[in-house]
């Protein structure tokens, strides 16, 4: 294990530090990388389908409830989202990391107490939400809706804890299925309520049956791997909370940082510019979730390698950063060149000024992909304070940039501030990870190939009559083709996607 840097907590794992040798698992196998790559194809497809289902669900609800009740629904959903964010406390990622590195008996203890702790935090958050709603004078129907949705949230937390082994053991097909089932189940419930002519309360309670369904499906899948009862071991709760405190604060700061440009726009920008930026920001947040999805699938491998095999950790991080850069530049290029199509599709032609905003903000996706990869590497190394400091630096940089640029150029300034913030965050994460001068070394060998490929693809803007979606697709294809010809795409990626023989990670002799 690399030496601890000043200010970092390397907390002892539950139970004895002299672990028995773990049985051979997929995380230790040379085919783990192949499994992640192929599983991520399923996760991407599931995420795209889930976004589509959520759009349909929201559209149906808006038309059925009308403006007043839809506004009330959004109010409750926002309050529950706040409860979920604060009570999540970084426990999902910490749970995955610990499950990937603990022995069997320690895993059982971890999951039991993770369930108990998540239920307790969710209950406290729900009580606080109800107290706030009462003080704010919310109608009884909203109070009941908060209570019912809160129970659904608690079921979701239990399901996520029970499902930790599925992600840790790289059963990404089931992970994708469960993620899609959540959106699909919500759509089915919404359609049924519309057909029944139900009122607002029924829609606020919709997450409850969906939570029951997901938990009911997850329990058989995790049978034999985790307990299904909560644990209330005070020592274990204290250990878990001590591990998560710095990381949870970092996540909270990160949440504020992501939304800071919107807040600045609402204060120092015009209402029109705020609307234009909001349209671009919505697209950016949907696309910006992709790196968290993709790198999150590889997180168990990083965690296990950080514990057992530094060479494998360095190899995995090198490949993940290469793929993050390749995908980040590709998506930024496509989003920028296809900004007109995306804005018109999502917001309509009246939001034409938002096109230029998205053309700028799209390039923040490069930093988003790299930052996501580095953040999971920091978490696997237990460098929670590094994550916190990096997010704080990005918050200050993003806020300063927004305050300086928004009064000058409006929504475009906010988009530029996002690019600045994501770039600073990436740099700060990199410094936190590599500043010790340890055994992790990353080569920039793919960077020139990516830049050449992107530059050649961008030249398509000068082709007469090529614009919108066609331009974005053509540029994306040219970028991948040129990068492949330059041998910039990691060969393991092609082998994993297009051959039946599993690929070793790292390859023999690598």
Provide the residue-averaged pLDDT: 84
DSSP strand content: under 5%
Radius of gyration: 23 Å
The secondary-structure element order is HHHHHHHHHHHHHHHHHHH
Helix content: over 70%
Biggest sheet overview: none
Report the span from N to C terminus: 21 Å
Number of helices: 19
Overall body shape: globular
Description of the molecule:
- This protein is an all-alpha fold and 510 residues long.
- The chain contains 19 helices and no strands.
- α11 (310-337) runs parallel beside α17 (447-458).
- The chain is globular, with a radius of gyration of 23 Å.
Primary descriptors:
single chain, 510 residues, 19 helices, globular, disordered N terminus
Please sum up the structure shown.
By secondary structure, the protein is an all-alpha fold. It has helices spanning 32-88, 91-101, 104-135, 140-162, 164-168, 172-195, 200-204, 207-221, 234-268, 271-308, 310-337, 339-346, 354-361, 364-380, 384-409, 411-434, 447-458, 468-485, 491-498.
